[in-house]
Write a structure and sequence with these properties.
The complex is a heterodimer. Chain A is mainly β. Chain A contains no helices and nine strands. A four-stranded antiparallel β-sheet of chain A has the order 1-2-5-8, with no helix packed on it. By secondary structure, chain B is of the alpha/beta class. In chain B, about 35% of the residues lie in helices and about 15% in strands. Chain B contains 14 helices and 14 strands. In chain B, strand 3 (about 20-25), helix 1 and strand 4 (about 50) form a beta-alpha-beta unit. The two termini of chain B are about 40 Å apart. Classes of the chains: A mainly beta, B alpha/beta. The interface of A and B includes residues 3, 75, 79 and 100 of A.
Chain lengths: ~110, ~400
């Protein structure tokens, strides 16, 4: 992909190693879960070890670094929204602390 | 590709070639739905397929879509079932089908004696139409004759790292081999407009692409919902743009040759983006109320087959064109493997690379084009939905390399 998008998505390029969290692009500040992980599991991120506070399901994201309110979250090296609450490395990043820069997502039932 | 695979295709009068020879039973209003469905069910032949339009009020988009679908290269003939008083232009539709050289008959329930007699007459008509469609000449057909569409449904956090980029690799190989590929849903490309515009073959087309995505954002903002379902969030996707970036990777790396609207048929090979969001003010509701509405639009633009990626696990197929299901998520694949043609979850479990899965999808495309059944076909899926929409004609800047063809509305 142009602009580095999906540049490092070849899993044999060493990405889904034990820990099973995938870095999709060097610029990213989140990792994507490639195999469900339980709360209490240790995860190594950039040479440091962190403990998961909650279960992380396949396809969900955790923070790669400390994130402050207003920080852009990068996936594939591109912004997927803004941080709404301070986030520590290894913390689950989802709709409780990440908001769209475009249109808000909705849940089940009537809005 | 090293050697170009060849298969048999049904030669149509406009020169296009089909990989299937369906006989459509088309109801023109919900009031004729039961009769049409009974004809299809009693015909008991998977090539006899039901499509229709539910509304009584006429709609230029629905008419054009129906015309493009009934004269699709995978279609050999059609039976039109009308109640009699609905607004759909049944004689215009019948004339367009007849002009294409296909057998067509029309039954009007109010004139044919009601439910029982119309079903009986319909079964006889379908037998005649099928016999005539069976005479369609078979000719050699290859990858350059194929139009392949892609859509994602039930996306999750794995879609954008497994199935979607694998389809992108398959698309790159198809385009390199001279095929036509179409990706779609500008509402699911919000956030990708700049990277996408850079891939356009001309700056003017790039500007049209950015304008189409801006239109989608306005449209969805008015409706109060993005193209984002609760299941997307369950699967780890948080925002519209995150879903978009994953969806975008289905397009691969080829230059974007044009921006089409539903029913526009690309005149030349290459990669095309379909703008599915209506023009003008919000009038008839959501651009596409479910995945099959998008599949129908891809087929109306000539797609012979559809590559459908799913993370949460969609099971749908389609009337007219086969749907090949590519499962992004290894947990979903384990649960729904009978519905999934390709397991792209193998990328996450380390058993295959994105390139290898891309090659597997391409092999499936060739097998299904050659007459092999996709799993959704085997399971009898023939979903179809068509609703009200309104579009303006595309600007010439949208198709810089090729003249627009197909039947105008």
């Amino acid at each position: 992909m142009e602009g580095g998008f999906m540049a490092s998505n070849d899993p044999r390029a060493g990405v889904p190693a034990p820990g099973r969290f995938v870095l999709l692009n060097e610029k990213d500040n989140i990792l994507v879960c490639a195999e469900a992980a339980k709360a209490g599991a240790a995860v190594e991120i950039d040479g440091q070890t962190f403990v998961l506070q909650v279960d992380i399901a396949l396809g969900h994201k955790i923070a790669r670094k400390q994130l402050a309110v207003g920080d852009r979250v990068l996936r594939y090296g591109i912004s997927i929204g803004f941080i709404t609450q301070p986030v520590t490395p290894g913390e689950h990043v989802h709709n409780h602390n990440l908001q769209s820069g475009y249109i808000a997502a909705h849940g089940r039932g009537c809005a | 590709m090293t050697k170009a695979p060849e298969f048999r295709g049904y030669l149509r009068s406009d020169g296009r070639k089909g990989i299937r020879n369906a006989v459509l039973v088309i109801y023109l209003v919900e009031c004729a739905h039961h009769v049409a469905r009974a004809i299809v069910n009693r015909a008991g032949d998977s090539a006899v397929q039901l499509i229709g339009f539910p509304g009584c009020y006429p709609n230029a988009y629905a008419f054009r879509m129906m015309k493009q679908l009934a004269t699709h290269p995978n279609v050999g003939g059609a039976l039109i079932v009308s109640l009699g008083c609905e607004g759909f232009d049944r004689s215009g539709l019948a004339a367009a089908i007849a002009d294409s050289g296909r057998p067509v008959e029309t039954l009007v329930i109010q004139e044919a004696g009601g439910t029982r007699t119309t079903i009986a007459a319909g079964l006889e008509a379908v037998a005649r139409i099928s016999a005539e469609a069976g005479q369609t000449p078979l000719v050699a057909m290859g990858v350059p004759d194929l139009v392949v569409g892609t859509i994602c449904g039930g996306s999750d956090g794995t879609s954008g790292i497994t199935a979607n980029p694998a389809v992108g690799r398959c698309f790159d190989r198809l385009v390199a081999a001279g095929a036509t590929c179409i990706f779609e849903e500008t509402g699911e490309l919000i956030g990708c407009e700049q990277v996408m515009a850079e891939r356009a073959v001309t700056p003017e087309l790039g500007a049209e692409i950015e304008a189409a995505v801006a239109k989608a954002e306005r449209y969805y903002t008015t409706l109060g919902y993005g193209s984002f379902a609760p299941g997307n969030a369950d699967g780890g996707l948080t925002t519209q743009e995150e879903k978009s970036l994953g969806a975008y990777s289905k397009s691969g790396d080829s230059p974007i040759s044009g921006l089409i609207k539903p029913g526009d048929i690309p005149a030349g090979p290459g990669l095309y983006l379909m703008d599915v969001v209506p023009d003008g003010d919000v009038r008839f509701g959501f651009p596409n109320i479910s995945d099959n509405a998008e599949i129908v639009e891809l087929i109306a633009s000539g797609c012979h087959l559809i590559l459908f990626t799913t993370g949460r696990g969609s099971v749908v197929g389609s009337a007219i064109s086969p749907v090949i299901k590519i499962c992004a998520n290894p947990e979903t694949y384990a649960k729904l493997r009978d519905d999934m043609d390709v397991n792209a979850g193998s990328i996450l479990t380390g058993q295959a690379t994105i390139d290898e899965v891309g090659a597997e999808i391409l092999a499936q495309v060739c097998a299904v084009a050659g007459g092999g059944l996709s799993l959704s076909e085997e399971l009898g899926h023939q979903e179809f939905i068509l609703t009200y929409k309104s579009f303006e004609a595309s600007s010439p800047a949208c198709l810089p390399q090729t003249a627009r063809t197909g039947v105008a509305a």
